[in-house]
Structure formats: structure tokens, C-alpha cells
């Protein structure tokens, strides 16, 4: 059993001074772009050489069409990384293809953990019951970290209203243990604005939203949400887990 928090930091090979310099850059970027709207921000980071190599990471979930649509207006060839955990709803896999075709995205890259790694760590598929953090690390965090090698920034769809842990989000923050910067263009987009954008542009909706799934992850760890519940209440229900691990340090107790 290995503490992957320490392991990932060591494996990153990024010196502390380089990470500190990247954090200083995050501070400067937030100061410079804090008054930009979403579209102007995206245009700046995708066309003005702010970063050398940028990718978007998308779950093709309930709200994903909004950010993908905005990006498609600027660069349909931008790499879009989609993590297939092999535990997703079939509806999500179908929606990924439907939405990508609708928007004309030309560079969607499907990211998966290697079959060999999954069989070595979780041969019976039971890890999600005993250690859901380690399951997310195996199927999401590790494959994404590998796929993001060579990129100096990646775009996320995180929003301040989604969770208590996201209320302090800014347009830019730093990937833990790396010098790679995360870009969060939708931080101040609330549900009404998202719905209006989807309607105005007649964007395809994830089919599970209409069935009571306002936040969609892996099928075994996502349940319907009742009226009046927090939209993310169906994610890892009845547990203290609130994030899959892509936006926090790798979990203690994760295995490799």
C-alpha cells in the first residue's frame, strides 16, 4: 500500500521552486483576467499565446455542453480529454459522441487506465466499495495525469456554486504537485445561466438529466437526486466523499 500523494509529487519531478514560480504566475493571471467575461477569457488563453499547450478535460456530463460549445466557437481542434472509467453510464458514452458530432469537435481523446493496471489493482471491480478514493485515483486521476504530460494548462468546468470546496475558485489555480495550471472559465455560471445557454443555442442535453441526475459520474457511484436536494447529493451518496480526485491531492491509501 503506497501513499500516492507523496508518490505523485516525487514522480512529477517538478522542483519546488518551479511550482512556486507557477503559483506566482497563477496570482498574476488572476489579477490580470479577473474582470474578463468567460468568452473573452477563453479567446485570450486559446489564441494569444498565454500558454504553450492547452487541453480541455470534459466529463461530457450534465453541464458539459456549455463549455464545449464556447470552446468550439474558438477552436474545434483543441484537444478534449474524456476519461472513460469503464464504469460510466451507457448514456454518457452515447452523449459524448452525439455532442462531439453536434459541435464539430475534431480532437476528442478518450483516456482510459490500462487494462493491465486495472487487473493488477482491482481485478474483481470491488475497489469502489472498500476504497472509492483509490478507485477514482486508479480510473481517473492516474490516467489523466499521464495524458496531461506535455500540457502546461488544462480547462475545467468547475463552478463556485457546485460545492462548498469550490466556493473560493478563481479563473486560474495550480494542479497540486505540478507546475501545470488549471483554467476555470465558468466559475460564476449559476444553473439559470447554464440552462439559458443550453436553450438559446439548442444544445443536446445529457439524457440522464431529465431522469433526475443533475450531476453525473460513474454509474455505481451516482444516484438520482430528489427535489430540494443539492444537485451533487447523488454523487457518492451517504459518504463524506465530494470530489473524484482530479481537483485535489491524490488520496492517502490509494494503491498502485
Question: What does this entry look like structurally?
Answer:
- The relative contact order is 0.20.
- The protein has a single domain, classed as Rossmann fold (3-Layer(aba) Sandwich).
- A six-stranded mixed beta sheet has the order 3-2-1-4-6-5.
- It is globular, with a radius of gyration of 18 Å.
- With 256 residues, the protein is of the alpha/beta class.
How many structural domains can be distinguished in the coordinates? 1
Full CATH superfamily name: HUPs
What topology, given as strand order, has the largest sheet? 3-2-1-4-6-5
Dominant shape: globular
Average pLDDT reading: 88
* Helix content, binned percent: 25-40%
Give the distance, in angstroms, between the N- and C-terminal Cα atoms.
7 Å
Strands, count: 6
CA radius of gyration:
18 Å
Largest sheet composition? 6 strands, mixed
Task: Give unreliable regions as ranges.
Answer: 1-11, 249-256
Q: Tell me what the CATH architecture is.
A: 3-Layer(aba) Sandwich
CATH class: Alpha Beta
Order of helices and strands: HHHEHEHEHHHEEEH
